[in-house]
Design a protein that fits this description.
This protein is of the alpha/beta class and 288 residues long. It is built from twelve helices and eleven strands. A seven-stranded mixed beta sheet has the order 7-6-5-8-9-11-10, with helices on both faces. A two-stranded antiparallel ribbon has the order 1-2. The chain has a two-stranded antiparallel ribbon with strand order 3-4. Strand 6, helix 7 and strand 7 form a beta-alpha-beta unit. Helix 2 packs antiparallel against helix 3. The chain binds glutamine. The site of glutamine (GLN) has 8 residues, from loops.
Length: 288
């Protein structure tokens, strides 16, 4: 029998995929399909040639990705790469996806460094994950000596690949940020920065399908979500030089508690920043 796979144009497949994601209730259907098309076809404007035929093998691969997306797989994991602060990063199962909110932490940290005239700081990025914060800070502060601390083997694999991808010189420290041996590995720091796990036990019961695909180790911050702020402020204080800076990201409504923790550990000059959505998202403070 003469059997031929059905031909499909870019426009036809695009519409088919968007309809599938819309039916699955994905609000970002158009954006998701566009990103998948750009990636799979290697074309920034895939609909510029709407009638162009898609090779059958490629069409099947696109359908496979869109099906996984319709079932709740994060777009970023499907693409395998994601941009943060203008930097390309590998992402995938086992590592937290860099959020735009975290760019606020990078900006806040850079502003405080500029304000204090700190140009070539020693920086410790605790719970580094993909390395997004460490790599963004390195790009903006080329003279900095940056230590990225991470304990998850899966996340470390991405961190290493991302260091290579960005021709970076950051130091990767493998281990638990709460372990005295890990703390003693690092030199005295001018800046400690962290986006630790901060979701509460309650939050963990209400995760969206996409977030359920991400590692709970990177999300769960203890019953009230604040375990890591307490531990970092206490255990890492001595690693920070006098006048050094600590900067945290946290979740919606946690600013008062984080402020209290910083104050009780003797930090001063506490300042906050809002993210793009207007949520108070980061705090910085000084050790005196
Ligand atoms: N921002 C993540 C979320 O909203 C949480 C990441 C974290 O705990 N640091 O799911």
């Amino acid at each position: 029998m003469n059997y031929e796979l059905k031909k499909v144009s870019r426009r036809q497949l695009y519409d088919e995929c968007v309809a599938l994601l819309n039916a699955a209730g994905k609000e970002s259907a158009d954006f998701d399909v566009l990103c998948i098309f750009q990636d799979m076809l290697g074309d920034k404007n895939p609909l510029f040639l709407p009638g162009k035929e898609i090779p059958p093998g490629t069409a099947e691969r696109i359908r496979g990705l869109v099906k996984a997306r319709s079932e709740g797989e994060p777009l970023q994991y499907l693409l395998g790469k994601w941009e943060f602060y203008g930097i390309e990063l590998y992402v995938g199962e086992g590592v937290l996806i860099p959020r735009p909110d975290t760019e606020t932490l990078v900006e806040h940290t850079l502003d405080i460094c500029r304000e204090k005239g700190i140009r070539s700081p020693v920086i410790a990025d605790l719970c580094s994950g993909s390395g997004c914060i460490a790599l963004a800070l390195e790009r903006e502060l080329p003279g900095a000596e940056i230590y990225a601390v991470e304990m998850s083997p899966e996340a470390l694999a991405y961190l290493r690949k991302n260091r290579e991808l960005n021709n970076s010189r950051i130091h990767i420290i493998e281990g638990d940020i709460l372990s005295p041996e890990v703390i003693s590995t690092l030199p005295e720091a001018d800046v400690i920065v962290s986006n630790p796990p901060y979701l509460t036990a309650q939050d963990m019961t209400e995760l969206e399908t996409e977030v359920l695909c991400e590692p709970s180790l990177a999300l769960f911050g203890g019953s009230d979500g604040l375990d890591y702020y307490r531990a970092i402020a206490e255990k890492w204080r001595d690693k920070l030089r006098e006048g050094g800076i600590i900067a945290f990201e946290f979740g919606l409504g946690q600013h008062g508690d984080v402020e209290e923790i910083l104050r009780s550990c003797g930090f001063t000059d506490i300042s906050f920043r809002k993210d793009g959505g207007g949520i108070i998202r980061t705090a910085s403070a000084v050790k005196h």
